[in-house]
Each structure stands twice: as structure tokens, then as C-alpha cells.
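wait is this the right file?? whatever heres the structure
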């Protein structure tokens, strides 16, 4: 049964009988005794659970009773055979079926008794009878690992974080990028090609006389020639004019994504037309063209500064949390559940696959070495993410941080204001899409992260331009 109230209500309304059966099964008490617990790797525990023979016999009788109405024994109509004949013929099947049916509930009861939180479906490893004919089941549970957070754990966390001040120079650089993205291209008689120009061209790429269609084109117009033709070919085009023909031999092409094989090709490129990039003037009219929300260039500059500042704050927060959790991972030693890592890795792989699909590609076509390297990277990143998720939750429990109703209402109100909608409409959407619990969980994580940042001793240093961007939070 879902914890989501909207989902539970829908279930009760549409299928009351089924819900009653589920509740009965959920509350079923199976007599048992946990004989032993064996810790396994990846935060798993193997439990040996004994069921008294009398209780097990009752479960077998229930299975046989259900089976009696479904099977046909020779000499009798379906469902009319005496119970003793059904028992004699199907006792082995009934015992196995009874075991299978009680395993999920036994796993729940064992977890409750031992005070562990189960993260995945239980794994049933088989059963045998002891000397007194009591079944003893082997059940493996993957559980939330014990993470011992103390005051010492969160004490003296010292990290260094970089900052990139949003200066006038940075704002002007961003404005120039916006200006360049709004450039137009105009054909000019007598012009010669320079990198960045628009170009209409035909290209013939061949390998040992065989045409390579992926690198060939006929009267194609492009404003990004450098992305479409090899670097050596683009350099050979520089300074050439309309109707000029450029030939470059022995160009090494990138490996084929399917086979991983490389090729060497000869290129022949004919220039049909050259268009020069024309940049707009940085004035009030330009600002209006960028967006209707701007009346003047000063308005555009203010918005650029605001966006850059928000981006820098988010980058610095991400870097801060990455450094914080690196320290906590170093201080805390615990098993990482395999299922959680697998789920996170699969999510990452799925996102990558969807991105590739947008370009007509897939991981299967990217070559064995690329795929193997990516899968290894995805698993490594998933292990770190799993550790972070488990740590942040345990820190929240230790500090008693929760997403209060007031915090939820405040965040919904903030989102509503940004979107120009009513808070009730935002809440209704979250409830309809059954995302309110997820929304609360995200708020809780943010509150925990805010608390961790407040506890850390942070030294801020100027960020060098060559430093790479930190991964997103």
C-alpha cells in the first residue's frame, strides 16, 4: 500500500475488497523465531527463521483447500476429489507454495523485530526442516546500514571553496556572448572566408576512392563549419573566396561509433557563398530585441548580473556540499547497499541514453570501450551518490531536521509567485501527480544541507579561470 494519501484514497474508492485483503495480509501474524543473523557484504543480512511445524501445517492446509477446487484428480470431476487424495498427490507442491506465500510476511516481521529498515525486496535462499520437522527459512534482507553520526562527526569540518565575483568585466563578457548569439549573416561580394563565417559549400570525402556520405554534402549552408568539417580542412578554407576549390588529403577521421575503427580520408570542398557575421549594436533597441521585458540596455545588464550572481551562488553551494560530503564520507565507514547503487547507476544510464536518442544515437552504438568506460564511471558516481543520500538522511535524523508544514507552504507560495499562479493550484498539481511526498523530501534534504553548511568552517578563495566546473548538486 502506498504512503501517498491520494493514492490510498483512490485505492479504497475503486477496490474496497482488494484493499481489505491487502490489510488482512499485512496484519497477518505468522508464528516464527529468528534463530540466527549473518552479516553479508553490501549491507545485507541473512536471517534463519524457524516456523513451528503446527503453524506451517495450517498454511499447507490452506493451500490444499484452495487447490482442491482448482485441480482435477483422475476419476473425479474438477474440485470434487476427496481432500486425502489431493493431499497425497499435491503435498510437495503445497508445502513449497506455502513457504513461498509466507516469505514476504516473514521478512516484514523479521525486519520489525530486529529494527532494520529494508531497502529492497527480500531474497529467499531456500529452506530445510530441523530435527523436530520445523521449517527453517533462509531470508536475505538488504537493509539501511548503520551510520553512527555523533557531535564529533560534525565537528571541525574545514573546507575550502572557490568564488568567482560577478564583476563588470564578467557582465560585459556575457553581454558579448548574447550579442554574438543574435548576430546575422550577410553575403558580401569579394569576401574571403574566416573562421566564424557562414558558408555554403559542397564537400566530397573519400577513402581509397570510396565516398564517405557522413562527411560529404552538397550545397550545404552552415554557420558552424568548424563543427562539421575537420580542423585541417577548415584552416585550408581560410582566405579562400567564392568558387574556390580546396583539397586536403590524409585527414584522420574520428573512430566509427559502431565498430570503433578509424579511417583516413581525402577532402575536396567547393565554396559557393560566404556570409559574414554582423553583430548588432549594444543599445536599447538590442535589449528590446532580446526580450520584451527589457526597455533599456541597463535593464538587460541588470538581468545578466542577476542571473550570473544566482548561477555563481548555486555553483559555490554545489562545490561546498561536494567538499562537505567528501569529508563526511572519509569520517564514516559503512556498507553501501548494492540495490541502491544499481538503481542510481541505472537512472544515470537512462538519462544518458535519452540524451543520445535526441541525436539519433544510443549507447549500444558508441563502441565497446566507450560503453565500458561510461558504465564504470556511472557505477563509481552512483556509489558516491548512494553514500551521500544515506549520510544526509542519517544527519537529518541525528539533528532532527524535518520539512515542516510551514516550510512546505512557504516553498509552494514562493513557486506560485515565480510562476504567477495560486499556491492552491501548485499544491493541487503536486497531489494530482503524487509528488507531494517527494516535494517534502527534497525540502528536507535542502534543510539538512543548509544546516551542514552552517556548521562547517568554510574558507573562500578566488577561483582560477582554468578550474573546471564542479558537477551539479
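ok assuming it is, sequence goes like this
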Amino acid at each position: 500500500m502506498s504512503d501517498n494519501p491520494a493514492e490510498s484514497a483512490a485505492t479504497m474508492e475503486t477496490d474496497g475488497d482488494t484493499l481489505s485483503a491487502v490489510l488482512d495480509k499485512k496484519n497477518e501474524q505468522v508464528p516464527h523465531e529468528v534463530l540466527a543473523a549473518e552479516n553479508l557484504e553490501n549491507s545485507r543480512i541473512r536471517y534463519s527463521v524457524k516456523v513451528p511445524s503446527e503453524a506451517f501445517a495450517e498454511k499447507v492446509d490452506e493451500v490444499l483447500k484452495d487447490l482442491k477446487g482448482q485441480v482435477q484428480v483422475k476419476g473425479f470431476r474438477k474440485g470434487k476429489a476427496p481432500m486425502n487424495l489431493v493431499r497425497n498427490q499435491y503435498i510437495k507442491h503445497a508445502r513449497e507454495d506455502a513457504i513461498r506465500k509466507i516469505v514476504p510476511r516473514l521478512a516484514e516481521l523479521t525486519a520489525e523485530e530486529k529494527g532494520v529498515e529494508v531497502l529492497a525486496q527480500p531474497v529467499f535462499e531456500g529452506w530445510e526442516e530441523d530435527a523436530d520437522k520445523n521449517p527453517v527459512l533462509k531470508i536475505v534482507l538488504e537493509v539501511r546500514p548503520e551510520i553512527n553520526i555523533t557531535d564529533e562527526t560534525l565537528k571541525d569540518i574545514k573546507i575550502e571553496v572557490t568564488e568567482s565575483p560577478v564583476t563588470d568585466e564578467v557582465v560585459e563578457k556575457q553581454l558579448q556572448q548574447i550579442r554574438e548569439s543574435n548576430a546575422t549573416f550577410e553575403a558580401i561580394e569579394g569576401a574571403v572566408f574566416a573562421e566564424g563565417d557562414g558558408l555554403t559549400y559542397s564537400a566530397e570525402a573519400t577513402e581509397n576512392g570510396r565516398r564517405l556520405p557522413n562527411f560529404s554534402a552538397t550545397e550545404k549552408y552552415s554557420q558552424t563549419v568548424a563543427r562539421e568539417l575537420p580542423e585541417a580542412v577548415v584552416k585550408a578554407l581560410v582566405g579562400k573566396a567564392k568558387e574556390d576549390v580546396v583539397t586536403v588529403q590524409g585527414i584522420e577521421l574520428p573512430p566509427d561509433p559502431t565498430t570503433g575503427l578509424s579511417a583516413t580520408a581525402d577532402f575536396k570542398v567547393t565554396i559557393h557563398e560566404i556570409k559574414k557575421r554582423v553583430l548588432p549594436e549594444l543599445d536599447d533597441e538590442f535589449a528590446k530585441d532580446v526580450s520584451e521585458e527589457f526597455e533599456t540596455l541597463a535593464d538587460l545588464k541588470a538581468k545578466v548580473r542577476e542571473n550570473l550572481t544566482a548561477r555563481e551562488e548555486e555553483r559555490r553551494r554545489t562545490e561546498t556540499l561536494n567538499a562537505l560530503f567528501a569529508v563526511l564520507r572519509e569520517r564514516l565507514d559503512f556498507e553501501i547497499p548494492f540495490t541502491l547503487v544499481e538503481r542510481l547507476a541505472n537512472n544515470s544510464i537512462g538519462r544518458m541514453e535519452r540524451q543520445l536518442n535526441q541525436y539519433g544515437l544510443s549507447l549500444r552504438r558508441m563502441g565497446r570501450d566507450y560503453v565500458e568506460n561510461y558504465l564504470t564511471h556511472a557505477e563509481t558516481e552512483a556509489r558516491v551518490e548512494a553514500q551521500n543520500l544515506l549520510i544526509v538522511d542519517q544527519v537529518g535524523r541525528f539533528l532532527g531536521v524535518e520539512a515542516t508544514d510551514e516550510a512546505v507552504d512557504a516553498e509552494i507560495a514562493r513557486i506560485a509567485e515565480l510562476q504567477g499562479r495560486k499556491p492552491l493550484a501548485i499544491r493541487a498539481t503536486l497531489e494530482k501527480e503524487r509528488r507531494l511526498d517527494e516535494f517534502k523530501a527534497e525540502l528536507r534534504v535542502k534543510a539538512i544541507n543548509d544546516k551542514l553548511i552552517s556548521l562547517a568552517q568554510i574558507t573562500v578563495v578566488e577561483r582560477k579561470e582554468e578550474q573546471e566546473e564542479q558537477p551539479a548538486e
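The chain is about 50% helix and 20% strand. so i think its the right one actually
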